[in-house]
TrEMBL record:
GO MF terms held by the record: hydrolase activity
Residues of the HD/PDEase domain: 543-704
Residue ranges of the TM segments: 37-57, 336-358, 370-386, 415-448, 460-481, 493-514
Pfam families per the UniProt record, alphabetical: 7TM-7TMR_HD, 7TMR-HDED, HD
Source organism per UniProt: Blastopirellula marina
Origin organism lineage: Bacteria, Pseudomonadati, Planctomycetota, Planctomycetia, Pirellulales
Keyword set, alphabetical order: Hydrolase, Membrane, Transmembrane, Transmembrane helix
UniProt keyword Cell division, yes or no: no
This protein's record includes keyword Hydrolase: yes
Protein name: Metal-dependent phosphohydrolase
NCBIfam families linked to this entry: HDIG
Length: 761
């Protein structure tokens, strides 16, 4: 034992082991990198843009068309709305009280006065009381009828004589003309309305607008009683009596006053003409001048009754109440609410970012890839907010986003993003829990159905299945939430199902654009691309038939191997078709295209031969780009050799160095492919199958045991060479690939029964 107070020294120092960083540390380390500041700026801008687009400084309105409130809804603040009925009544009253417009023509009255003067002149200048004079003079007296006694010719002639005697006085004729003109002048400016014009008058106004045309045109408002012909006649009668009595000079002129008054009464014209167009304009002005009447709702008065589905009028009132409530909110409350919404955006964004760091870091390593994820996600929130407010069709937008992410990335990531986007839409648009559950269930059903898309009908079937889920979920959850099982609720649920089906149809149309934008390949495109009639494959078959046969065999083996580890076997098969297309430029330098006596590498320096062999990778990638092959296929061409060693020529070069010590030491890097190493499991599968299939051709007797040993040797050599370090391939998956490749190659190179040779005759 060690003495007290002392500790025993250990013979060996224990080395400290540093544990790998956890998820949180990886997340912080990833985002704290200087290159990620631009990513954070994009996320900040996206959150602010969503805040502006969704008006997230005010809480959303929570009521939607068809919702049945369980109780009365009282306004939170007093508000007012336009009272259309009261406004229409006021407009009708204003229109009815609008004054009619008449055009005054004073010339008509002047013409009557001139004619009166002319007749008086003719009568006063007549030599005798003949028939013509009697006819003119009779115009000043009423015609005999049942109520009027027949005229006495002697009395008429006597009055005519008195008329001549009266007008023989000096200046009498001019004075008479002036008096008559003075008596009629006030009525010329105001106008006289005939009975037929009164019938055309519109409205109940007691006054009219009189417009006098001419050089002294004017417009005046005159009482109707001042222009009616009956009232005007009475006033003219009095005015004529007063004016003509000024001419009497002691004589009795009642006969002249009565005669002239009777003649004027009989010949008085109407000078006012109804102006229909001007009256219509006047009525329109009166209607336009009416202010919109307001209906005020107090906080004690219910806006909507309980148990009644919300229709257009009720929703309108609730929207006005919500606007009034938002208008009275203080700046502080708006700021706090805005910060809460922005915090919600950042929390959901952080959740997605953590997933990307752990499961899909490639999105955070390329800005374009990051924006291709960020922009559609934010657009889905904005469009979902807009669609929900108008048609409650947010499921259409979110389902398209869910299917896109499922195709481009992963299904589990699509589920996460769908949940975050649905929650953001619900919180910003004011949608109910029913809406959130409907969207989440529909998108989950669509996402989980997006396994393999080998035909365009698949997306339609996905939409139909999601539509069934949307319909049943919306109807069932609505009933659970307390909504009555009415036909309107059934119709609303049917619309949700229709939107989901529409998303599937729309995604079928958008699929080619999604593939091009994200540089991904669906099974549909892969099947089209893997057609043997493809121009590049046709050229490969013609120029390098050995390479073509090798590619076809590798494709079959690699597809089965990829399927064994649940990778994309179809993608590997199509990638295998094109992985060696670069060999068609110099096919004679590759062994599968050579004859036994023809080897172009004889006489070449091993380094030069290596350059020729390695060049087929770059040549193949260039051919693929020229023919616009997808990026995923180009990756197979560039990665199927990784950074492996061209062993044959490396050994030849090493042998020369050993034989001649004066030679420079062989640089291994010259004899390696430029890479990159396989970045996906599919590329790793193709690397193994390509190497093993080529090596199997060298086996004299390819038995199952020899094939298995060869597969084990070559795959382990690449594992130890670090070729699988960047593709995420596990040892268990590597073992599954080895087993699958062994079975496939054994089936290809199985033994055959030898038939006995024919005996000579």
């Amino acid at each position: 034992m060690a003495p007290p107070g002392k500790t025993r020294k250990r013979g060996k120092r224990i080395q400290s082991l540093e544990l790998p960083p956890g998820t949180f540390r990886r997340f912080v380390s990833e985002l704290s990198h200087p290159d990620k500041l631009l990513y954070l700026a994009c996320a900040l801008f996206a959150a602010v843009a969503l805040w502006l687009l969704t008006g997230a400084w005010n809480p959303p309105m929570q009521y939607r068309l068809g919702y049945v409130p369980p109780a009365e809804i009282h306004p939170r603040v007093q508000f007012s709305v336009d009272d259309d009925q009261a406004t229409v009544k006021m407009q009708r009253d204003a229109e009815n009280e609008a004054m009619s417009v008449y055009t005054n023509e004073p010339a008509r009255l002047e013409q009557m006065r001139t004619r009166l003067q002319t007749i008086i002149n003719q009568l006063t200048q007549a030599k005798q009381f003949d028939a013509e004079v009697e006819r003119l003079w009779n115009e000043f007296f009423p015609i005999a009828d049942e109520t009027v006694a027949p005229p006495n010719p002697m009395e008429r002639e006597e009055q005519f004589t008195r008329l001549k005697t009266l007008f023989q006085r000096e200046g009498m004729l001019n004075a008479f003309q002036q008096r008559v003109e003075a008596a009629l002048k006030p009525f010329a400016s105001r106008g006289i309305m005939a009975p037929d014009q009164l019938e055309q008058k519109q409205g109940q106004a007691a006054s009219i607008i009189v417009v006098t045309a001419g050089p002294n045109s004017n417009q005046q408002i005159i009482s109707l009683n001042d222009v009616l012909r009956a009232q005007v006649l009475e006033k003219i009668r009095k005015s004529l009596q007063l004016e003509l009595e000024e001419l009497s000079k002691g004589e009795d002129l009642r006969f002249l006053v009565e005669a002239v008054t009777f003649w004027v009464e009989k010949n008085l014209p109407g000078t006012l003409t109804f102006d229909r167009q001007a009256t219509i304009l006047e009525r329109e002005k009166a209607v336009a001048a009416v202010e919109t009447q307001q209906r005020i709702y107090s906080t004690k008065e219910p806006v909507v009754q309980g148990g009644v589905p919300l229709q257009g009028r009720e929703l309108f009132l609730l929207r006005r109440e919500h606007e009034a409530y938002c208008d009275q909110r203080s700046f502080l409350s708006k700021t706090i609410y805005s910060l809460a919404i922005l915090g919600m955006y950042y929390a959901l964004g952080t959740l997605c970012a953590i997933y990307l760091v752990v499961k899909c870091p490639r999105i955070l390593r390329d800005l374009n890839e990051y924006l291709l994820f960020l922009v559609p996600t934010c657009a889905a929130i904005a469009l979902g907010y807009w669609f929900d407010d108008r048609w409650q069709a947010e499921v259409l937008v979110v389902m398209i986003l869910a299917m896109t992410i499922s195709i481009v990335y992963q299904q589990e990531f699509a589920l996460l993003v769908t949940a975050c986007v649905s929650l953001a839409i619900v919180l910003t648009s004011g949608s109910s829990l029913v809406g959130f559950v409907t969207v989440a269930a529909s998108c989950s059903a669509a996402t989980l159905s997006m396994t393999r898309i080998r035909s365009r009908n698949k997306l339609l079937f996905v939409g139909i299945w999601a539509g069934v889920v949307a319909f049943t979920t919306n109807y069932g959850v609505s009933i659970v939430a307390g909504q009555p099982a009415t036909l309107a609720l059934l119709e609303a649920a049917a619309w949700q199902g229709a939107y989901a089906v529409g998303a599937g149809i729309l995604m079928t149309v958008l699929l080619p654009f999604v593939e091009k934008a994200y540089g991904i390949l669906t099974d549909i495109s892969l099947l089209e691309l893997g057609d043997a009639a493809h121009p590049l494959l046709q050229k490969l078959a013609q120029r390098a038939p050995g390479t073509y046969n090798h590619s076809i065999t590798v494709a079959s083996i690699a597809e089965a191997a990829a399927d064994s580890i649940r990778a994309n076997g179809l993608l590997v098969r199509v990638g295998a078709y094109f992985h060696d297309i670069g060999k068609m430029l110099k096919p004679e330098y590759f062994v599968e295209n050579q004859t036994a006596s023809d080897n172009r590498h004889d006489g070449l320096n091993p380094a030069i031969s290596t350059l020729v062999i390695i060049a087929h990778v770059k040549d193949g990638a260039d051919l693929a780009r020229q023919n616009r092959l997808p990026r995923a296929i180009i990756d197979f061409i560039e990665q199927h050799h990784g950074t492996t060693l061209v062993e044959y020529f490396y050994r030849v070069a090493s042998a020369k160095v050993e034989a001649n010590p004066d030679e420079r030491e062989v640089d291994e890097t010259i004899y390696r492919y430029p890479g990159p190493k396989p970045q996906t499991k599919e590329a790793a599968v193709l690397m193994i199958c390509d190497a093993v299939e080529s090596a199997c051709r060298t086996l004299v007797e390819p038995t199952s045991a020899r094939i298995e040993a060869l597969v084990e040797e070559l795959s382990m050599k690449r594992l130890l060479d670090g070729q699988f370090d960047e593709c995420g391939l596990t040892l268990q998956e590597l073992r599954q690939i080895q087993n699958s490749v062994t079975k496939s190659l054994t089936a290809v190179y199985h033994g055959r029964v030898k038939y006995p040779s024919s005996q000579p005759a």
